[in-house]
Amino acid sequence: MTLPPLSSFIHGVHPPLIALLTDFGTRDPYVGIMKGVIAVHCPGAICIDLTHEVAPQNVTQGAYLLRSAYRYFPPYTVFLGVVDPGVGTARRAIAIQTGRGAFVGPDNGLFSLVLAEQESYLAVELRPPDRARLSDTFQGRDLFAPAAADLAGGLPITQLGTPLRDLVQVPPLRIDQPHPNVFEGEVIHIDHFGNVITNLGGFGWNQDRLEGALVGAIDPQHTWVYIGQEKLETIHRTYGESAVGAVLALISSDGQLEIAVNQGSAAEVLKVHLGDRVRLEIR
User: How many CA atoms within 13 Å lie on the side-chain side of 107?
Assistant: First the structure.
């Protein structure tokens, strides 16, 4: 497959654009150092922070957040993703070009949820710099940031490494169906407000009904949601449909089943953590 270099999108029209997603946090200088490297390799590039608060080493959460965000960016964006528990090991470093942007980071499944939505893509294993300049613990600085900057500046992806086909896939988000109208999933993200996002998704509102590939069309008032010791007997449209401080289920802006507390933190109230199980029953 041949895709045009990113320079065909940006030449004379748009400045280079790089979006960053990591588990680095912002307490340390790691993110700033990567942006400094980008500035050296691609002066004038715009850097947008998607998030640096992915739970440490949680590739599945990073993959979900990246999938949630990438479609809102222009197609010339380079996404630099570094959630890399295997840094310094034999895991491969990759760059991927799609019709919806390019992606640079470790080959550990971080990009697999995005790629599942693409008709085609081209992937390469990055050619590392001289070993003396490649850290075993901070390849975001020495390998991924320079590659992302080169791509954003218009370098064809084929000049960054050798073609790949067998990319690592993140383990599938576990959804069980023990009975025809019962679905069991798990918590994949907890946002800044303490809203609990589950992997039961693909929902959308059609007037007063919910529709989705997972469940078909259902009446939200004929649903039970179980999480921890809590049982919620309907799915709401908005936080404001419940009393302040009440626990409720609703559909997130990304179409996922969400558990929230109106003007509070569901994660704190329910003592919920990433990976906890959630159950949806349709009556």
Answer: 17
